[in-house]
Amino acid sequence: MDEQYDVIVLGTGLTECILSGLLSVEGKKVLHIDRNDYYGGESASLNLTQLYRKFRSGAEPPSELGKDRDYNIDQIPKFMMASGELVRILTHTDVTKYLEFKQISGSFVYRDGKISKVPASEMEAVRSPLMGLFEKRRAKKFFEYMQNWREDDPSTHQGLDINTVPMSAVYEKFGLEPGTQDFIGHAMALYLDDSYLTRTARESYDRIILYISSVARYGKSPYIYPLYGLGELPQGFARLSAIYGGTYMLDKPVDEIVYDANGKVCGVRSGDETAATKQVIGDPSYFPNKVRKIGQVVRAICLLNHPIPNTDDADSIQLVIPQNQIGRKHDIYIASVSGTHNVCAKGYYLAIVSTIVETDNPEAEIKHGLDLLGPCVEKFINVTDLEEPFEDGSKDQVFISRSYDATSHFGTVCEDVKSIYKRVTGQDLVLKQRAKDEEQAE
């Protein structure tokens, strides 16, 4: 291990594995270390025995649930936007060849005490119970405006400069009701809270167009999901890194981050071995004195033997409960997948309910979500700290990722990847489809 590397990456969470893959492809010499004996860190998928070991202090899972190999249970559930950044990163690096994806059947929103499908087409919008007749007309005009808007054609702007006016002004112009604003802002633009209303409308425009274009790709919903669970993603990027010369060491303790006389990182020590490097990337768990806690996320992993009620028996859904509907400051997210995604035994469904913690009774905060699931066969509650680095890493060349938040999609993870990539390399991450040169590299 006593070698010189360009970058040492600590932890095999998804953020770290994507960066490791991207930097290896760029020709950097990368060493990737994880104290665990499996890939994925916080974003690993667990089998049944691992799940019970983690949450039931070593209890054996009931035999009627099926075999270990039938289960790949995400600790941090997230779906991918079909036209989103993560899909573009996967295509850019050609990691798609290691993975198979399946579409998520529906996107739903909780409104006025009921679950309603977020319309995926004009026909669905016309029939949707989310809006009355006149509101549907106003919403149609709003979506037409969004889809016709062109930066360089003022005739499409209708007197609004979305680069300067807040999103609230756009809603106001089209006279949209608070409930409609709720489902556009939270179930389509996927904001965690309402602070977006005061920010420039351009940000919301980009998110809404991403949602619409993702739905257009496959029809039923904007989301896709890897067969065998999200744990496949870090492993795909790890394989990419290895093809380009990256070195992986699992089950390797990290005892010390070594700094030079100027306070810059110069190595990582494990036992009596030290690997030299100029830059280190890692997740917050490796740097307890360099991160601050900014909140907590509560997640309930629920095993069901039936689809979630009132979702047309869908085998997989995303359901957003907007904060305003239940008097909270943050939305509640429900991500559900099933045996058809090879993540649980046939006939079973996994539903994971998550939100940002606001009180000292986290489980009570997700009650609204749990109540919508119907009876659970098993339920595992997990509360994790949300952490972020104090500094951006420019002084000591140590770049720390942020914890995975409560959102049920990868937007915030991709923002973090792009931000760290720029700080490490000094350049923006430019995504394009890569020439298929990996076969030669092998």
UniProtKB/TrEMBL annotation:
Pfam entry (one): GDI
Any one annotated GO CC term: cytoplasm
GO BP annotations listed: protein transport; small GTPase-mediated signal transduction; vesicle-mediated transport
Taxonomy, superkingdom: Eukaryota
Coiled coil: none
Molecular function in Gene Ontology: Rab GDP-dissociation inhibitor activity
InterPro entries xref list: FAD/NAD-bd_sf, GDP_dissociation_inhibitor, RabGDI
Similarity remark: Belongs to the Rab GDI family.
Name of this chain's protein: Rab GDP dissociation inhibitor
Species lineage: Eukaryota, Fungi, Fungi incertae sedis, Mucoromycota, Glomeromycotina
